[in-house]
Structures are given as C-alpha cells and as structure tokens.
Task: structure prediction
Amino acid sequence: MVASMDSIKQLREETGAGIMDCKRALEDAAGDIEHARGLLRERGIARAEGRSGRVASQGLVHSYVHSGRVGALVEVNCETDFVARTDDFKALVHEIAMQVASMSPAVVAREDLEPGDDRDPKEVALLEQAYIRDNHKTIRDLVQETIAKTSENIRVNRFVRFELGQKPGD
Result:
C-alpha cells in the first residue's frame, strides 16, 4: 500500500521521525497510523540501542524550580553541541528536571542501585520511573524517542534534587 502525503505528514508531525521512515512505517502498517506509530517507536528503540556505545560528551545542565520549594539540577549529555541546542533536546532535559523535582529518584538507572538494595527500581531509578505527563511511558522511553529524533546517543549523566528544609540524603 502506498502511503498518502497527508498521513505521512501527520505521522511525521506526531513523532518527529523522518519522512522516509514515516512512509515505510505506514506502508508496513497498511496505512494504520496507530500501528505505524508503534513501528516507529520499536525502530527508534533499535536505533537507540545501536547508538549507546557512542561518546556523549556534549549536552546541557538545566535547573528547574517548583514554587520556590523544590528544585532539580540535571546534566544530560549528547554527542554534539548542535543537538544540545535543538528544541527537542532542550525539551527533554527540561522534562527530566521536572521529573526529578516531582518524583525524587535516588539513582539514574537500575544498574546504579547497590547490590542487595531491595527498593523497587520503578520508584527509585529515574530511567525506570513512569513519566509524570504520560504514565504509559518511562523516562527511558522519553530518552529513546529523542534519540530516534536526533540520531545521537543521549545519556542522563547525573542529577541532584533540593527541597526546602531538607539536607542532602534525607
């Protein structure tokens, strides 16, 4: 089935994927936009895994303060300063800072938990947490979607959360 330009345009606007990727996904999904969106998500994840070995030494440090009582400072890295200046990357870093302020994770990834730590990684590992704006996605999904859009490796390097009246580690 040949995909129509309108459906390609719609899928591209919704996902940020390239025109040819949208066209192929729509053709593979027989014109079903929902199925094509799922195919793009799967393919984006495959691309993200392929880029995970690349060095990510550029990026942004971003702060978010909520009502003057809770704040977060995050460092998110990518491969080039060009991508670090894009709206997609800046939006991702802002969303991660909001997630840290809101959900108070303890570590970046499940692998960062100490051996024998019995806490649920879905609660304490940032990348495993449900995204505050869409609980059907995790922060890892959000990062992988941005990797698919930017075609660069992206890594959440570190974060710190501040809450008025609390000492670090409380």
Notes: The chain has two domains: 5-51, 58-163. Residues 62 and 151 are 21 Å apart (CA to CA).
